[in-house]
Design brief:
Length: 448
């Protein structure tokens, strides 16, 4: 805590931008976010109410040595109000004086950038990265700590496109130095596109992971804490994003394929890995009617078909989890099919409203159910061994008010009605899963 206090004290004396005589300078920026979340009948427990206040503070510092060399770091601190641990519930009246995760400032990003020439830029260290529209690799900015990767990236910028070559070392915590996880890839963003195209991204990755014991950082499809044994993977992944608009019609299409070898965490037989994902959205905007927009979308990713020696369950990799598959974060990608209908409008320049309705099912009825950030009870790992494909429906209603460009408040009402897949099923705590859960969510954000 003394070191943290000293760091904050030093930063407090730094001006927002300070230039030195030799041409170097330091700039700082950041944001503060406060969330209130109330989940009723949470996890299928009738009359259960799970609510909390959570705040996130981030500060980013850029240190530019000269026109070609720059260093950036992002520090982030998260706190559940009244909690002395990572869980809710104040244990002592002076709990917030203890040295725990609610008083820590984490290094989320720390990387250096070197502008080699007019066309090449090299980046090395730990940093966040969003590829295309974030449906394969995303910084996941809504999460408490955004997704960051350790490695190097070289970007080649031309008039016709931007090509990024990267290599990433996986996040592993193991005493066995032979355990390894890494991926390499290339991503191409095309430029100078026709007017009806706004984005074209294509990418190819090679992913490798040893079978072994890794640190479990509360991953989306794992749950729990401590260490977990993860499977062997040796795979090639390829995908694309295309989006654009013309004459008030907008469209988007994402696709991914995954091929290679896979072996269960506790297995000794390698399986053929073959998965796919497609995600599409089509909308129409009424500029003269409060800039209203109606849209329809479809998502499908593959699941197990019970064939021997194969694994067909799609792995979402580092996709944007919050903005895909409903704002209540019940389900994660993998053996998931859903359609959605949505409408949005801007009654005023500073107010936007939206309503989205999702219909979820399993791609393969006998397959597993993946969990979102708040849907462990409805996943296979949470004990929901469903034998039917109808998972349920979700309604999201949101309202956002902007106060200038630096402050906003947004509210969400979400309702999830569990489908026939959960009829007669209980979660691990013995609560009936065939129920309706609701969420009330309020968020305020300030940037500086």
């Amino acid at each position: 805590m003394k070191k943290l206090s000293a760091l904050i004290a030093v930063l407090s004396f730094l001006p927002l931008a300070h230039a030195y005589a030799d041409g170097s300078d330091i700039t700082a920026s950041g944001d503060y976010r406060l969330q209130y979340q109330d989940n009723q009948d949470f996890g299928g427990a009738h009359s259960a109410d799970d609510s909390n206040f959570h705040q996130r503070f981030r500060i980013g510092v850029n240190a530019r040595a000269n026109e070609k060399l720059n260093f950036h770091t992002t520090l982030v601190g998260n706190t559940d109000w009244g909690s002395s641990t990572t869980q809710n519930g104040m244990t002592t009246l002076n709990a917030n004086t203890t040295n725990d995760i609610n008083n820590m400032l984490l290094v989320n990003e720390a990387y250096a950038t070197w502008v080699l020439n007019d066309n090449w830029v090299l980046r090395a260290g730990r940093g966040a990265f969003t590829m295309g529209d974030g449906r394969f690799i995303s910084s996941n900015d809504w999460e408490n700590v955004q997704t960051a990767f350790d490695g190097m990236m070289a970007t080649w910028d031309q008039d016709w496109g931007r090509t990024s070559f990267f290599g990433v070392k996986g996040g592993i915590d193991s005493s066995d130095n032979t355990i390894d996880s890494r991926f390499y890839g290339v991503s191409e963003d095309l430029k100078d596109l026709p007017t009806f195209l706004k984005m074209v991204n294509v990418h190819v990755l090679e992913v490798y992971q040893d079978q072994g014991t890794y640190n479990n950082t509360a991953g989306v499809n794992i749950g729990g804490s401590g260490t977990v044994t993860l499977p062997y993977r040796d795979e090639t992944r390829a995908g694309f994003t295309v989006s654009g608009d013309e004459a008030n019609v907008d469209y988007r299409l994402d696709g991914e394929i995954e091929t290679g070898k896979y072996m269960e965490a506790a297995g000794n037989t390698k399986e053929n890995l073959s998965t796919h994902m497609v995600d599409a959205d089509l909308g129409y905007t009424f500029p003269s009617l409060m800039n209203g927009r109606v849209h329809v979308g479809y998502h499908q990713d593959s699941g197990n078909n019970n064939a021997t020696n194969t694994n067909d369950v799609y792995n979402g990799f580092a996709y944007d989890r919050h903005d895909n598959g409903g704002l209540m974060n019940i389900f994660g990608w993998g053996n998931l099919t859903y359609t959605w209908l949505g409408v949005s409008a801007q009654p005023r320049d500073d107010i936007s409203v939206a309503a989205n309705y999702y219909m979820f099912s399993k791609t393969e009825a006998q397959g597993v159910v993946m969990s979102g950030d708040y849907g462990l009870a409805y996943s296979s790992i949470g004990g929901a061994n469903t034998t039917s494909g109808t998972l349920g429906n979700e309604l999201d209603l949101t309202v956002t008010k902007h106060y200038g460009q630096k402050f906003y408040i947004t509210g969400l009402y979400g309702m999830f009605d569990a489908g026939s897949a959960y009829s007669g099923l209980n979660n691990l705590a013995g609560n009936t899963l065939k129920t309706t859960i609701t969420e009330y969510y309020l968020e305020g954000g300030l940037t500086f």
